[in-house]
């Protein structure tokens, strides 16, 4: 008698991010340097999660692994029910292009291109027509409060404005997951709060799942739903705030 397969979980019950037993060890010659040790957590869709911890605690390593930019030494990562380890090179490329949006501390904008061109740039590789690229970029710049600065190049923008451009660029391919690696690291405290507040508003208005690495513990507690605290590559605590 054949076994009846178990029904699949409804989409809303599938975690947006599911990390199980994740470890990452780097080698420097004969020396092994553990960056993450047996890290496990789940993030529900539409959650704003923050990862905090001291420098060297493994925060950025974790984000790179979830973003498919690096591979773990052990453990598994699934995003919206799909294991990253099961993706071939093309699958990982598609995941990084449209399954996840990345925001970095250093903005990573193209210096010779305007804000509008920076936001629209990823759409070229997705085969989006020029008119739609123009319209999507303009709409996102308006949403992040920069419609009047679209023709300015990065050197003509403040740090906070550059990060808003970077956030708009991360959204342009409409990914369900945003990974933000120390997005306030190069900003003053007032601007930092504005940027994290913008991420929280995008989480609410678009239903985005956001995983943000930050050393700003107070901002994480103010805006995030969950705070995961790392220490020496391990999860020291996981706290649900709202």
Shape category? globular
Instruction: State the name of the first-level CATH class.
Output: Alpha Beta
Oligomer designation: single chain
How many structural units, i.e. domains? 1
State the strand order across the main sheet: 6-7-8-3-9-10
Number of helices: 7
Major sheet, described briefly? 6 strands, mixed
Query: Roughly what percent helix?
Result: 25-40%
Instruction: Output the helix-strand order.
Output: EEEHEEHEHHHEHEHEE
Mean pLDDT: 93
Explain the overall architecture.
The protein is an alpha/beta fold and about 240 residues long. The chain has one domain: P-loop containing nucleotide triphosphate hydrolases (Rossmann fold, 3-Layer(aba) Sandwich). Helix content is about 35%, strand content about 25%. The strands form 2 sheets. It has a 6-stranded mixed beta sheet with strand order 6-7-8-3-9-10, with helices on both faces. Strand 7, helix 6 and strand 8 form a beta-alpha-beta unit. Helix 3 packs parallel to helix 5 and helix 4 packs across helix 5. The termini are far apart.
Ordered list of secondary-structure elements with their pairings:
Elements: E1 17-28, E2 31-43, E3 48-52, H1 59-66, E4 74-79, E5 82-83, H2 89-99, E6 100-104, H3 115-125, H4 130-143, H5 159-171, E7 177-181, H6 189-206, E8 209-213, H7 217-223, E9 226-231, E10 234-240
Parallel strand pairs: 3-8, 3-9, 6-7, 7-8
Antiparallel strand pairs: 1-2, 1-4, 4-5, 9-10
Helix pairs in contact: 3-4, 3-5, 4-5, 5-6
């Amino acid at each position: 008698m054949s076994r009846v397969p178990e029904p699949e979980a409804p989409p809303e019950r599938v975690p947006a991010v599911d990390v199980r037993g994740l470890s990452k060890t780097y080698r420097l010659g004969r020396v092994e340097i553990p960056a993450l040790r047996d890290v496990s957590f789940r993030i529900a869709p539409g959650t704003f999660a923050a990862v905090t911890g001291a420098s060297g605690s493994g925060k950025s390593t974790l984000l790179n692994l979830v973003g498919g930019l690096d591979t773990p030494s052990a453990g598994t990562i699934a995003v919206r029910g799909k294991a990253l380890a099961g993706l071939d090179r093309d699958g990982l490329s598609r995941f990084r292009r449209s399954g996840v949006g990345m925001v970095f501390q250093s903005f990573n904008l193209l210096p010779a291109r305007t804000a509008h061109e920076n936001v629209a740039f990823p759409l070229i590789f997705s085969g989006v027509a020029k008119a739609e690229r123009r319209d999507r970029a303009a709409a996102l710049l308006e949403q992040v409060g920069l419609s009047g600065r679209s023709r300015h190049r990065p050197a003509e923008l403040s740090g906070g404005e550059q990060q808003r451009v970077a956030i708009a660029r991360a959204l342009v391919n409409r990914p369900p997951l945003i990974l933000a690696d120390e997005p306030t690291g190069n900003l003053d405290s007032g601007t930092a709060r504005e940027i994290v507040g913008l991420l929280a508003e995008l989480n609410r208005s678009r239903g985005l799942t956001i995983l943000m690495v930050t050393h700003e513990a107070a901002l994480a507690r103010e805006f995030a739903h969950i705070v995961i605290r790392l220490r020496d590559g391990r999860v020291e605590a996981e706290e649900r705030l709202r």
